[in-house]
């Protein structure tokens, strides 16, 4: 069971609802029907998913479901960002240097997981430069990326600084 939860978090596509605007959300009864309601969501894509294809399929599905409602309302679906999934080459020498640096600073081997995140520029950098992109772990599991709980602890900030120094040292040793 725990493996299924981790696989869903680290390996599989997912849909996240970020908010609904225009609908009454305060406690209590409300009988007013809003003129317009906007829903925002994102889809975490994984390797072999093509953003334009996913966008087309999502739009078609939503329009098909909406058409069965026989509603006088209108549905408009827009996409703002579509980014290819990024996957690192863990055999790249800089990843070996990163693993050594994590071991040096934290005293443990890094867990090489496929954590989803919203950094579409990573894939762009990799494609444009022809070089691998490296992301080092300095945040904690409770840092709440991109949310009202976004933060970095003093410990992670200090240890992250050490990690960067150790990483640059390990890079300097590469042939």
* SSE string, helices as H and strands as E: HEEHHHH
From the N-terminal CA to the C-terminal CA, the straight-line distance is 43 Å
Shape: elongated
Helix content percent band: 25-40%
Q: If classified by CATH, what would the architecture of the largest domain be?
A: Orthogonal Bundle
- Give the overall pLDDT as a whole number: 87
CATH topology type of the largest domain: DNA polymerase, domain 1
Q: Tell how many strands the DSSP assignment holds.
A: 2
Structural class: mainly alpha
* Total number of domains: 2
What proportion of the residues form beta strands (DSSP E)? 5-15%
What's the CATH class label of the largest domain? Mainly Alpha
Which residue ranges are poorly predicted, with pLDDT under 50 across at least 5 consecutive positions?
A: none
The largest sheet is:
2 strands, antiparallel
Order of strands, main sheet, comes to: 1-2
Rg estimate, integer Å: 21 Å
Per DSSP, the total helix count is 5
């Amino acid at each position: 069971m725990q493996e299924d939860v981790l696989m869903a978090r680290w390996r599989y596509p997912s849909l996240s609802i970020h908010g609904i605007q225009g609908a009454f959300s305060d406690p209590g009864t409300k009988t007013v029907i809003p003129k317009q309601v906007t829903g925002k969501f994102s889809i975490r894509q994984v390797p072999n998913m093509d953003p334009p294809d996913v966008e087309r399929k999502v739009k078609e599905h939503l329009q098909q479901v909406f058409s069965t409602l026989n509603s006088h309302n209108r549905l408009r679906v827009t996409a703002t960002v579509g980014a290819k999934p990024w996957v690192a080459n863990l055999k790249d020498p800089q990843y070996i240097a990163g693993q050594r640096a994590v071991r040096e600073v934290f005293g443990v081997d890094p867990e090489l997981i496929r954590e989803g995140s919203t950094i579409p520029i990573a894939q762009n950098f990799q494609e444009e430069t022809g070089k691998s992109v490296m992301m080092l772990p300095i945040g904690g599991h409770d840092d709440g990326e991109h949310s009202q709980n976004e933060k970095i602890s003093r410990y992670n900030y200090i240890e992250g600084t050490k990690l960067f120094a150790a990483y640059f040292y390990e890079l300097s040793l590469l042939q």
